[in-house]
Amino acid sequence: MFKKLLCTIGILFCVLSGLFAQNYDDNFAKPIVTENGKYRYYELPPIKTSEGELIFLDRNLGATSDYVGSTDSWGDLYQWGRATDGHEKRSSDTTLSLSKTYNTNHSLFIDDEKKANDWMQNSDDDLWKGENGLTNPCPCGYRLPTEREWRALLNLGYEVKTSQEGFYYLSIANGQLLLPAAGLRNAYTGNFQHVGTRGYYWGADAISRGTSSCIDFNKNDITTNISIFGFRAFGRSVRCLKDN
Question: Would you say 108 and 94 are in contact if contact means Cβ atoms under 8 Å apart?
Fold first, then answer.
């Protein structure tokens, strides 16, 4: 309730100040900060799907650029259900201790050494459920896409492309949404994999114990790993949206 109140106050402030249209820095209840400092997000035009019109932010959480040919577009890698607590940074250190609660009280990436498929001792399926999810990492009024929304987007058509710089990205609906191949952080070792050649994006839904929805694409094959499930302890990209 307190988080929702903060979001409402932040949104009203932006509307009154005339900043709501394209400037979200002042709309954050908790401004997201990267290694490069504070920055702003912008909205993409609405995308019409069978699940309604979806409005995405122009870049991944933690990214300082929306240009898919730049490493600055890759952004952070979140363990599913965790808040923006520093673990998502590519420079974060690791720990082997699973968390007892959703509030870890540290910024370490949790290695799932025992392959429990989660960073928590007891899974919680509702942490990223909607914009009012307890640890929703998106700006106020925004949330992660659901599995149904990811599927609806992909039904509009998609293609893996390469930027002039040689980085792979996923183009959805004739370029209405571009997702850089930002790579993955391995849950068992804390190492980074497939950076620049493969993309992994979380969805909001819990699938089963220790797994949640996601999409997965790579430079060679996009048909076998679309809208599947991923183990929650892995670090994946987050792209936020809101309903129109």
Answer: yes
156: tokens are: 């509009």
Residue 6 host element (H or E): helix 2-17
CA nearest to 183, candidates 191, 175, 172: 191
Q: How many helices (H) and strands (E) does the chain have?
A: 2, 17
Consecutive H or E run containing 148: helix 147-154
Q: Which two tokens stand for residue 99?
A: 């968390």
Q: Which two three-digit tokens encode residue 157?
A: 């058509």
Report the alpha-carbon distance of residue 25 to residue 19 in Å, rounded. Answer: 9
- Under the banding of pLDDT at 50, 70 and 90, the label for residue 32 is very low
Other Cβ atoms closer than 10 A to 77: 27
Q: In this structure, are residues 58 and 242 in contact, taking their beta carbons and an 8 Å threshold? A: no
Tokens 């492309």, residue located:
161
Find tokens 């996009």 and name the residue.
222
Query: What is the reported pTM?
Result: 0.83
Degrees, nearest 5: CA angle 66-68-73: 55
AA identity, residue 199: G
Is it the case that residue 29 has pLDDT exceeding 80? no
Q: Write the pLDDT tens digit of every residue in 88-111.
A: 999 999 999 999 999 999 999 999
Size (the chain), residues: 244
* Nearest alpha carbon to residue 135 among 232, 225, 219: 232
Residue 215's DSSP bridge partners are: 201
